[in-house]
Amino acid sequence: MREITFVEALTEAHHEEMERDERVIVMGEDVELAYVFGVTKGLAEKFGRDRVRDTPISELGIVGAGVGAAMAGYRPIVEIMFMDFIMLAMDPLINQAAKLRYMLGGQLSVPLVVRTPGGGGVQYGPTHSQCLEAWFMQIPGIKVAAPSDPADAKGLMCSAIRDDNPVLVVEHKMLYKMKGPVPEGEHVTPFGQAAVKREGGDITLIGVGYQVHNCLAAADELGKEGISAEVVDPRTLAPLDTGTLAESVRKTNRCIIVEEGHLRSGVGSEISAAVQEEAFDYLDAPIGRVAALDAPIPFEPRLEDFVLPNTANVVDAAKKALGVTV
Amino acid sequence: MREITFVEALTEAHHEEMERDERVIVMGEDVELAYVFGVTKGLAEKFGRDRVRDTPISELGIVGAGVGAAMAGYRPIVEIMFMDFIMLAMDPLINQAAKLRYMLGGQLSVPLVVRTPGGGGVQYGPTHSQCLEAWFMQIPGIKVAAPSDPADAKGLMCSAIRDDNPVLVVEHKMLYKMKGPVPEGEHVTPFGQAAVKREGGDITLIGVGYQVHNCLAAADELGKEGISAEVVDPRTLAPLDTGTLAESVRKTNRCIIVEEGHLRSGVGSEISAAVQEEAFDYLDAPIGRVAALDAPIPFEPRLEDFVLPNTANVVDAAKKALGVTV
Amino acid sequence: MATRAKKRRSAKPKRLTKKDLNAMYRNMLRIRRFEEKTDEFFMAGRVKGAVHVSIGQEACSVGVCTALNDEDAILTTHRGHGHSIAKGTRMPEMMAELLGKSTGLCKARGGSMHIADISKGHYGAHSIVGANMPMATGMGLAYQLEGSGRVAVVFFGDGASNQGSFHESMNLCAIWKLPVIFFCENNHYAVSYHVERSTSVKDISVRAQGYNAPGVTVDGMDVVAVYEATAEAVRRAREGGGPSLIEAKTYRFFGHSRGDPQFGPYRTKEEVDEWRKRDPLTIAADMLKLTEAQKKAHLKAVDKELNGAIDFAEGSPEATLESALEDVYA
Amino acid sequence: MATRAKKRRSAKPKRLTKKDLNAMYRNMLRIRRFEEKTDEFFMAGRVKGAVHVSIGQEACSVGVCTALNDEDAILTTHRGHGHSIAKGTRMPEMMAELLGKSTGLCKARGGSMHIADISKGHYGAHSIVGANMPMATGMGLAYQLEGSGRVAVVFFGDGASNQGSFHESMNLCAIWKLPVIFFCENNHYAVSYHVERSTSVKDISVRAQGYNAPGVTVDGMDVVAVYEATAEAVRRAREGGGPSLIEAKTYRFFGHSRGDPQFGPYRTKEEVDEWRKRDPLTIAADMLKLTEAQKKAHLKAVDKELNGAIDFAEGSPEATLESALEDVYA
Ligand SMILES: Cc1ncc(C[n+]2csc(CCOP(=O)(O)OP(=O)(O)O)c2C)c(N)n1
Ligand SMILES: Cc1ncc(C[n+]2csc(CCOP(=O)(O)OP(=O)(O)O)c2C)c(N)n1
Ligand SMILES: [Mg+2]
Ligand SMILES: [Mg+2]
Questions:
Q1: Cβ contacts (< 8 Å) between B272 and chain A: which residues?
Q2: Least CB-packed of B205, C238, D127, D320 within 10 Å?
Q3: How crowded is the C-beta side of B132, counted as CA atoms within 13 Å?
C-alpha cells in the first residue's frame, strides 16, 4: 500500500469530503496558506476562499460561527491552531454545540468539526503543548477522536466530517510527519472501535494518540525480555470502546494506560475505571497509568522530555505490573 | 455548636478574611447586592465598593483581571455566577493563573480564588447545572475545593483565600440553604485532607460535594438492612487525599464513588483509578461509580431528577458491590 | 446549495399601513398577555426554572420581526418570549415547554431560556449571555454562502454588549459583510447593574464605529421606530452591505427574574412609573387611536388564542423519563 | 497598602534631550543586536521552541518604555524581546532563558514567549494572543487601589485587537478609569493574514471610541512619536483619567517565526524593502545626525554587553531535571 504522512492523510480527507459535499467549509487562522502545520494545504486554491477562509484571531468567535453555520445546514471544519487555545472556545463547543440538539428538543443538529494539534515534543512550552482530551470526554453530545497513524487520521477525519454531531479531532504534533500506509480511495473509520495495533498475551498497553508509539516501542523492549505485550489504541475517546479494551485485559490480566495529558483526571483515569469495572475478576495487578508528570510542560528539550512520558516509563510500569524487578 | 447555613458560613469566611487582610478584594456580577445566591451579602457596605465591586458581564475579562490583580499583590476573589459560565474564563484560569508561577520561573504567585455554584436541582437546565470539577483536577497549578457542609464551606474558603495559589471553590447550589454546626472564630480547614463523615465497615461510599448527602442517606438505607457503610468526603479534589480514601477501602474492601458530574471522565474516574492502584489487593468487588446519566441536565423537575444521581442509585450500586440482590 | 449562486434580492422596506400597525399592536398584546400568564404560572409554581419576562420591551420584539421574512432567522436570549412570539413561534407548543410537557418545543428539556421553533426561523433562545452573537455570525455566513438573501438577527441586552463575543462577532460580520443585524435591547439593567456603570459609552450604538458598521439608537418603546431602523438594516444586509448595530432604549417593567421585585434594591418606584408612562402598547394604541371597544376586541381575541395554548399545554402528556436521554446525539 | 491612600502624582512628560535620544538609539540597537543574535542562534538550533523577533519594531519598545518609571509595569506578547530589553530586563538572564539554562529568567521553562523580569516591572511575555489585556486590567486595578500612581502598559498586535479580551478589557478599564495603556503594534500581519482582511477598521485606534477613551495612531517607526503619545497617555493615566489606546503603524522586517521567510507567500520583497527604508534605527540616527564613528561606538558598546550576556548564558549550568517539577505551587 502507498505510504503517506499523517498530514497528507488529513489533507486528503479534506479534499475528498469537500468534493463529496459542498456544504463542507473550512475556517481558521492562516488556513488559506496552511501556514502552521499544513493540513489545509491546497484547499483554498481548489475550493475557493469562500469555502476555505482565514479568520481573525478570535477563537470564541470562529468556533461560535462554526456552530451557527452548522445550525444553518453547513458542515464547518474549524481549525484551532494549538489545542491550548481551545480554552477560549469552550463555551461555543460545550455549552452550545454539544447541547443544542438536545436542548432545543432535537429540532436541529450541529455537524461541526473542530480539529486541533495537541501535545508536546516541539519545545513550545506550557501554553502550546497541552493534551486536554479528557475534558471533552465528560461532555454528552460531543465526540472525540485521537488518531495515532495516517490511516486512522484519514479514516476518522472522514467519519468526523460526515457525522451529524460536533466532533473534536485531536492531532498530535509529533504525528504530523509520520508516514504510514493509507488505502487509496474512500476510507472511513467508524467511531467507537478500538484497534489492536499489536497482539500479545502478557500485558495490555493502551495508548492514546501519539502514545500508541511509545507503547509499541515499549512492546519491542519487553519482547526482548520475553514479555509479550498487546497494544490497543482506543482511536476515539468518546465514544470509548471499553468492550475491546476490557477484552484484551481479560486475556492478558494486566494493563497499563499511556497518555500524554496529566495523570490526575486524565484519559487514563476513565479508561482505568471503566476497564476495572468490566474486567475486575481478570486483573492480576493494579491497572497502571503513565502520563505527563505533575507540572506544566517546560520548553527546554531535556526538561520537556523529562516531564513527558517516554518508552522507559511504559516499560517500567509494565514490568511493575508483571512483578518483574526493574 | 451554633448552626448556620452554608451561605452564611461562606459569607462569614469573606468577612473575616477581608478584615484580616486588606489585600482581599471581591469582584463579580451583582456581588454588591449579593443578588443571586447571597454569598457576598453585606461586604460592599462594610468594605466599600473599591474592594467589593460589581462587574460587567465579561467572564474572561474579570477572571483575567483577577489574575492581574493577584500578580500585583492583591488577593482577589472572583465570583462566577454559575459554574457553566467558567467556560468563558478557562484561558485566564488554566493557561494563565495555573501556569504563571511555574512559567515565569517562580518570580511571582497568583493568589486568586474563583468561586462558583455548580450542579442541578433548581430546574435551570442544561447550561446552568453542570459539574465540571474534573476538568480542573487535571491541571497542575490550580487547586479545587468542593465543600459539602457549612463547616467545611467556611474552613475551605478561608484556606482558599490564604493560599498563594489559584483555587477554584465549587459550591453546590443545593447546599446553600443547608444548616450545620460551624465553630465560632477562626476556622481553617486544610486542603488535601479527606473527612470520614460516617464510619462503617462493609463498604466505602465516597461522595463529592452535595453527593455526600446522597451517600449519607444511602448509608441510612443500607443500615436498615444491616449493612454498615462508611462515607468519606475528599473535600478537596486537587490536592486529592487518596491516602484516606484508600485506607477506608482497605478496611471495607468495597467502594462506590458518587458525583454529580457525568460519569465518563468524571471525578469518579480519577478516584476509582487512584483507589484501585492503592488498594488493589483489598478490593472484593469492582469499584462502582454513580453519576449523572449521559445527557445534558434537562430543566423539567421529573426529568432533571431522573438524570441526576439519587439515593436509590447509590443504594443499588452498593448492594451490587456487596453481591446483595437488589 | 451553490455558493453565492443566486442574486441577492434588494428589498425595499415596505411602508406600514394601518393594518400593519394594527397587527403589530395585536402582536405586542399577544406577548404581553402570554408573559403575564407565564409570570402568574411561575408565581404559582407551575412554571419552573429560570423565567425572565420582557414586559415593557414588546415594541422591540414586534418592531424587529415585522421587518423580517419567514426565512430570516432570529437568535434570542434568556429574555426571549417576546421575540419568539413575534417571529411566529407556535404558542401552544411554547406554553407546553414552559409547563414541561412532552409536546413542548424543546421536549421539556430547555424551558423558558431555550425556546426555539426552527420551522418559524427561530433559532433559539440562548441562555449564556453573549453566546448567540457568534452563532448569528455563522448563520449569516451560511446565508451569504447560499446567496439566499436571508438575514440573521441577534437580540442581546446592554449587559451582553460587554462580552468579548460582541466584539469578535461584529468584526467578523464586518470584514465578511455578513447579513447579520445586532439588535441591542438596552433596558438599562443587567440584573441589578445599571448600564451607566457597566458600559463605558452612553449610547451602545457608538460601538459600531469600531467595526466600520452603521450604528443607530432608537426609541425602543416605539414599535414603528424599531421597525424602521430594522427595515433599513435588513435592506442593507440583503444588498450585501454587511452588519448593522441597532440599540433600542427600553425598559423592563418587571423584575429581572424569579424573586426580583419590580422595584426595590436597585431601582425606584418612580423610575419604573416614569417608564411605564411610555408603555409601548399605549404608544401604539394612541397612534392607532384605538377605542376602548377596539382594545377589548383585541384582548378578547388574544385571550382566546392564549387560552387555547394553555388548554393544549395542560392537556399534553408529561415527557417520559426515557425521553430525557434522547436526542443527545443525532 | 491603604486603598487610594496616596495622592496621585501628576507627571508632566519630560521633554527629550539629545542625551535621552541617544539613549533611545542605544536601546533600539541593543534590541536589534540581541534579536539578530537570537535569530542566528535559533537558525543554528541553539535556541529552541517558538521564537518571534521584533526587528523593525524597536521604536515601539523603546518609545513606550522611555515614558515609564521603573515601578510601572509592562505586559507583552510572543514577540516581546524588544519590550523586555527596553524595560530594563537583565540581558544575561534573558539570554540564559533562550538558551535554556538554569539561570534563565524562567528557569528554562518559559522560553522566548514567556520572558519576565518582575524586578524590572516586566510582568511577562504572554503567548496566548490577547490574554495579557485582562491581566493588565487587573494590574491597573491594583495600582488604582493602592493609589500608587503606577501604570500598566499592555503591548499587543493588530491580530490581537480582534480578540474579545480587547473589548472586555477596554470596557473594564474605561468604566473604572484604570491606569492602563493599550499599545497596539500594528505591524500589518498576524502570521500570514493582513490587517486589512482581519480588521474591519483602517485605524485600530478608532476602536477607542467604543469605550469613550482616547485613541491615537502614531508612526511606529519614529521613536519620538511613540514616546510622545505614550507620555501623554501615562500622564492621563496617572491623573486618574483612565485608559488610552495607542496604535503604532510598524512592520516586522523578519518572518513571523520559525521557517517563515522575510517575504514570500504573503508579502513581497518590494513591500519589505519599502518598509526597510523607514528603519527606526536609521530614522533615529538621522535625527541625532550620528556620524559613522558614533554609530560604531554604539555598536561596539552594545556588542560588548551582548557578548557578556552570551558568555554568562553559555557559562551557566543546565537546569536540573528535578527543577522541572518545582514552582508548580507556591
Ligand atoms: C455568560 C453569562 N454570564 C452571566 C449570566 C447570568 N445572567 C443572566 S441574565 C443576566 C443579565 C443580562 O443583562 P442584559 O444583557 O442587559 O439582558 P437583560 O436581562 O437586561 O434582558 C445575567 C448576568 C449568564 N446567563 N451568562
Ligand atoms: C489565542 C491564540 N491564538 C493564536 C495564536 C497563534 N499565534 C501566535 S502569534 C499569532 C499572530 C499574532 O498577530 P499579531 O497580534 O498581529 O502580533 P504579531 O505576531 O504581528 O506581532 C498567532 C495567530 C496564539 N498564540 N494565541
Ligand atoms: Mg439589560
Ligand atoms: Mg501583527
A1: 269, 272-273, 276
A2: D320
A3: 28
